[in-house]
Write a structure and sequence with these properties.
The complex is a heterodimer of chains A (143) and B (574). Chain A has 143 residues and is of the alpha/beta class. Chain A has seven helices and seven strands. The radius of gyration of chain B is 24 Å and the shape is globular. Chain B starts with 5 loop residues before the first helix and ends with a helix. Classes of the chains: A alpha/beta (143), B alpha+beta (574).
């Protein structure tokens, strides 16, 4: 069972919905009354997801390697396009990247037990104050 | 000059603490070597040929005496008493120990400095015209924008794990001294037809194994839009740039493969959304930054003593004629201090020299120094009444070499003497060229020429854009040097053309000598520079001489040398 990291530290994954790929979701032809969970690679075009926002409650973006930062821009783009649901980064994300992920709009990170053992909760909590010391948030404030 | 706010200081201190913990976590195994690598790189720490190397940022090349003094202290305390100034206006320490690096970063933070993003696949230290705020030809000082970009790019959550490194340069002058067309993004400050301030945005320039000249993405971007526009370019690059091949990962390849028009459409589309995420604080900050970079309060003193020293001291005269540039205040000069004394490593300065430069800046230079991409140090504001004192004090630490813009003012990468990537030595080539032409006493006669040397295909020594470019390669275990001619790093950026087959380590200096003699022989007048001659005649005359066996041309060269000596003699008599 993977570990979910939030600002409060480690939690177990309580999300019980099945994750669909975008292709599968499109086949269902969903209505906004349904709430689906979506699994997407970091190469997804966010504009394809935008019409579906109303029927998605969680988007999970895969991080295959911590050196591949596409998932950060993808998350930020989804938020700017108006996605208000839950956003989860899954895979090889380091404790050192926690603040970046939060600043780009992720709510939580899903990591493997192996990574959680190697980088224990304390290391993630030391990065949980993602609102301070952030140049970009300061620059984007109102005048 | 910009002084850190409490916010900057908190950020910087936090970053030092984080790095200290990252080093500990690497040692206790929390971080694997692969995971630690990008983290140490974005804090400026490389693993080189013999040791770690720490690259310290000097944002847009601007610093004051306190910072320069601290760089000297660090060189003595943690290194071997010297530092190396780089083509991206940074300083490198070649021998720090990993355990000392957090302490070095702390010492830097104490004087509002850092090593953040001087390496790694992120937005690197932003560079700017080293004459900013002082030159006569400037439309506007680029440093307020450069500082704005520094803050925006620092620890940007989206762009710390890009496909490859990303370099931004900015100039406020139409005479480009910041090589904007060879950067991932180059910004030129311009005015539109209503005289409103803005930027020309150039993207996709770069050197390396595939040299490309940047293309204009937007000919006029209003000032207020700079950050959201840059953010849009970065987002398109982050998503579209290749990650399958390190050598095809720079934005120049993205632009080349997709075409500038497609990139332009994508950026403009993205820009509309991105603009809505900025609330105006950035522009308010920019106004504050403009005040921070206001011109110094100039002094008003008679300059008779300067004129007198100029007449009476020939060494000073030579220094003035070669190393000084016009300042926008007529009674001031911009002083370029050469870190290229003949026979020395280009760009190296000892701690003693750094202290002297710091003192001079404090005493005579309105407390300002610059690092140029040409690996020299600049005192941008020196009143003419102080020039002779500055010169004499520089002389006391061997910093008085009068060779700015001449054949010995060479850009050279560290090459195989330090670098793990290098395939050949660069420093000894630069040293030998400088020594040889100094010995021939031809430097002043040759006049303006830019030689740039890289010790591998990655082109850190900018060889593609040197009037003479030298690229050191490894051919079956033997150093081989290829020559390009006609490169240009100014607003008329050009990639040099290959002369032909390369030369061995022992052949390269004679080959350069032949090229220079050919130039002296065929130039239309003494005022025609090497580059002008090359642009007029092309490669052929140089090729002919360089690849003709020496015994055949020895005679003609000797004749030329004799004639040349005669003309020197006659000049002296006049």
């Amino acid at each position: 069972m993977n570990v979910i990291v939030t600002d409060n530290g480690f939690e177990s994954d309580t999300w019980s919905n099945i994750f669909l790929t975008l292709d599968k979701l499109l086949l269902i032809n969903p209505k906004s009354t349904n709430k689906f969970s979506l699994d997407v690679p970091n190469t997804t075009d966010p504009k394809e997801l935008a019409p579906l926002f109303a029927c998605i409650s969680l988007i999970r973006i895969a991080f295959l390697n911590s050196t591949d930062g596409r998932g950060f821009t993808l998350a930020s783009h989804l938020r700017l396009l108006g996605y208000k649901g839950r956003l989860r980064a899954q895979g090889h994300v380091l404790a050192d990247q926690y603040t970046m992920a939060r600043r780009c709009g992720y709510d939580e990170i899903e990591i493997s037990i192996e990574l959680a053992d190697r980088q224990p909760e304390k290391q993630w909590l030391s990065r949980s104050d993602w609102k301070s010391n952030c140049y970009i948030n300061q620059l984007k404030q109102l005048a | 000059m910009y002084s850190y706010t409490e916010f900057d200081n908190n950020f910087n201190q936090n970053r030092v603490d984080q790095f200290r913990s990252q080093v500990t976590r690497r040692i206790d195994g929390s971080l694997t070597e692969d995971e630690f690598k990008p983290l140490r790189l974005m804090n400026g720490l490389y693993l080189q040929l013999h040791a770690y190397m720490l690259r310290v940022a000097i944002p847009y090349g601007t610093l004051n005496s306190q910072k320069m003094y601290q760089l000297a202290i660090i060189a003595d305390k943690y290194d071997r008493g010297y530092g190396h100034f780089t083509t991206r206006q940074n300083i490198q320490y070649n021998w720090p120990k990993l355990k000392d690096v957090p302490d070095i970063l702390q010492d830097l933070a104490n004087v509002e400095m850092h090593a953040v993003q001087t390496s790694g696949n992120c937005i690197r230290n932003v560079t700017a015209d080293h004459f900013a705020g002082a030159s006569t030809d400037e439309i506007e000082d680029p440093r307020p924008t450069a500082e704005l970009i520094r803050q925006w790019s620092t620890d940007h959550p989206e762009f710390s794990f890009l496909g490859r490194k990303f370099k931004i340069a900015i100039t406020g002058s139409p005479n480009d001294r910041a090589v904007t067309k060879a950067h991932d993004i180059g910004l030129r400050m311009v005015r539109n037809n209503k005289n409103e301030p803005g930027y020309e945005v150039i993207i996709g320039g770069g050197l390396g194994r595939t040299p490309m000249i940047g293309k204009v993405l937007r000919s006029f971007l209003p000032r207020k839009d700079i950050l959201p526009y840059l953010e849009s370019v970065m987002q398109i690059y982050n998503m579209l740039g290749r990650r399958d091949n390190k050598y095809k990962a720079r934005i120049k390849i993205t632009v080349h493969e997709h075409g500038i028009n497609k990139i332009c459409d994508l950026v403009e589309e993205r820009f509309i959304i991105q603009r809505s995420s900025f609330g105006g604080f950035d522009q308010k900050l920019l106004i504050k930054l403009e005040k921070a970079f206001a011109a110094p309060i100039y002094i008003n003193e008679p300059i008779d003593s300067y004129n007198k020293s100029y007449q009476s001291d020939p060494l000073f005269r030579s220094f003035v004629d070669t190393n000084l540039s016009e300042h926008k205040n007529l009674n001031y000069s911009i002083v370029s201090i050469s870190l290229k004394k003949h026979g020395q490593t280009p760009g190296d300065a000892t701690s003693q020299q750094m202290r002297m430069m710091a003192n001079l800046a404090k005493k005579y230079g309105h407390d300002e120094l610059r690092i140029s991409h040409e690996q020299n140090v600049i005192l941008p504001h020196v009143h003419k009444s102080n020039l002779y004192k500055v010169f004499n004090e520089l002389k006391s630490v061997e910093l008085d070499t009068a060779n700015i813009g001449l054949i010995s003012d060479i850009i050279a990468c560290p090459g195989m003497d330090y670098c793990a990537l290098a395939t050949a030595r660069s420093i000894p080539i630069a040293q030998q060229i400088a020594m040889r032409f100094n010995q021939l006493k031809l430097e002043n006669d040759i006049g303006e020429i830019k030689i740039k040397i890289s010790g591998c295909i990655n082109a850190c020594g900018h060889h593609h854009i040197g009037h003479i470019g030298i690229l050191g390669l490894d051919r079956a275990g033997v150093e081989n040097y290829q020559i390009t001619l006609g490169g240009n790093s100014t607003q008329n950026t050009a990639i040099g053309k290959s002369l032909g087959p390369g030369f061995s380590y022992t052949e390269i200096i004679p080959a350069i000598e032949k090229i220079i003699y050919t130039y002296l022989d065929i130039r239309s007048s003494n005022d025609e520079t090497f580059l002008e001659t090359f642009n007029r005649v092309g490669l052929t005359p140089f090729k002919k001489i360089v690849y003709t066996p020496s015994e055949i041309i020895n005679k003609s060269t000797a004749t030329f040398a004799n004639n040349n000596n005669e003309s020197f003699a006659s000049q002296e008599i006049k």
